[in-house]
Amino acid sequence: MAKKVPTKRIHHGDTVIDEYAWLSNKEDPDTTAYLEAENDFLQQQTAHLSDLQEQVFQEIKGRTQETDLSVPSRKGAWWYFTRTEEGKQYAVSCRVPADSDAPPEITPGERLDREQVILDGNELAGDSPFFSVGASSVSPDGTMLAFSTDYKGDERFTLRFKNLTTGEVLPDEITDIFYGGAWSADGSTFFYTRVDDAWRPFQVYRHALGTQEDVLVYEESDERYWVGIGLTRSEKYLVLGAGSKITSEVRILDANDPAGEFRVVRPRTTGVEYGVEHAGDFFYVLHNENAENFELATAPLDDPGTWTPLIPHGEDTRLLEIDAFSDHAVVHLRRDGLTGLRVLPYGSAGGTWRERVEASERNAYEIDFPEPLYDVGPAGNPEFTTRRLRLAYTSMVTPPSVYDYELDSHELILLKQRPVLGGYDPGDYEQFREWATAGDGTKIPVSIVKRKDAAKPAPTLLYGYGSYETSIDPGFSVPRLSLLDRGFVFAIAHVRGGGEMGRRWYEEGKLTRKRNTFTDFVDVARHMKASGWSERIIARGGSAGGLLMGAVTNLAPELFAGVVAEVPFVDALNTILDPSLPLTVIEWDEWGDPLHNPDVYAYMKSYSPYENVDGGPYPPILAITSLNDTRVLYHEPAKWIARLRASASGGPFLLKTEMGAGHGGRSGRYDAWREEAFALSWIIERGTA
């Protein structure tokens, strides 16, 4: 391998030498050789874990009902569901004719009369080591399927169309598109998005089936904005959204006029986010104009930019989304660190649409759930006219469960709870909500689960994220049982920068308050030890949570017996300084703009993990990345591990690069289980060493 010359950069009078910048050249054979050598070294260092890894893999596999199916969802004349089959990596999408309003009873492994396979992921994947579906959308009349596939993990998809009546795949083929898309009402036209060189979805195209020349419908020139398009549940409007991290703008079009012109609901105003939901003869608008935790408003169809408040802003409740149906609406919300559902029934109230929705707010109620910790949300509700609400529910001890909520009887009907084989009994486990105190006095929620018979203090896996207002809610995990049954405690630190406690929680962990995210996690770790929960703590986080992992090992390496950083954003300053890299300009609203602002530069440099590795002792670190990741590029963890190994003491510092995958890792379920078993075997050793 040729000697690599360090790069030098100068920003705002600061000169920095980056001796590992050469690793960012993905096309350099030396880079590939380096990553493969790191994988070989990893195998040498972890070979003694092979038996434990296999044991954990068999535990995950043994607890999973491999031949299974989802709960069917009604859409028009069909019930749609997915199957998984033992020994096969990917799901199979199916449907059967809807002969009644009740979901068909389907037995895993058995086929129904008139069952139709829509999309077989195993057949499409073939022998490819990676496979992913970016879109799978049935036209409103149920006759056509739009589907897109990725065989590399770089999240650039190829779009095709399948006639569901004949089974024929049409010759129409569109390459290099983004996720998702939307049909026109008559199924003649499909709208999709394309990305620019920085992996930003910035264009919306219109494709008429059977034609070759697609029409550019919209292009977003502001590099801070993403675009996306969807069809309302009512199938009356196409909704084209453009949004930055802090601002949004929505355009709508009659779905029966796909060649028409989109109209702006309300022009963008910096700092104002809003979304539009069609509710028959009016729109709902969820927005944050003078409403930090968002307000629900209504608007007339002919003047959607005029908003009348319905549910005003509340300091204690973050409104997340609104789902509208023909005679009711459902608000997904967050309060006290937990999610919830509020039903707005129109009832039999007559009069104008405004009088009906005002009556619905007077009659509104929330659905109660019995556990102290849980996560709930709407799930699989494609029909506009229905008297049932499909919802998904889970907790740290309750496997994912699908319910139908009867609006007339207020009854929750359990349709399916994910089977957990091997004698799992939720009564053997217990979950807790603790509150750690941060250095500034802020109370940080912590969700904890353990076996009832596990001794305290216990080895602990402490998970965190803390960015983008993303909440890590208290849900169930089959692989986690392999830790709990070995006496581990599992805890989630709901640090600032996430959304668990509302919009302000997010605002207090971004830009020049980002360090709160890191110090919150450290304070939670100290709380776990001081309160008797934990002895050896292993920290884990991925993507922006990987930044958290790198930052806390610089801040308080003595607290952790090990750190797992997955696709970690650990070279944050160099990445955010380079506007040519994927997502950089978009990210300036989240992290700040160090390229043009010296104060932001200095602040980011003070916490960016790669910039702050010192010569002191660090805990063992396992960094996991993927060569084709388009979000957090592989070279960030590669450079970080190289600098740790050269500059720090302690360790060992290990790098695992998946050479044929993207941001989400390996795509097949068995492959993903093996990857998780590898990480868990490493965690178990660190916790019990």
UniProtKB/TrEMBL annotation:
The keyword Hydrolase applies. Residues 476-684 form the Peptidase S9 prolyl oligopeptidase catalytic domain. Keywords: Hydrolase, Protease, Serine protease. The keyword Transferase does not apply. Residues 3-418 form the Peptidase S9A N-terminal domain. Pfam families: Peptidase_S9, Peptidase_S9_N. Belongs to the peptidase S9A family. This is S9 family peptidase. It comes from Nonomuraea maheshkhaliensis.
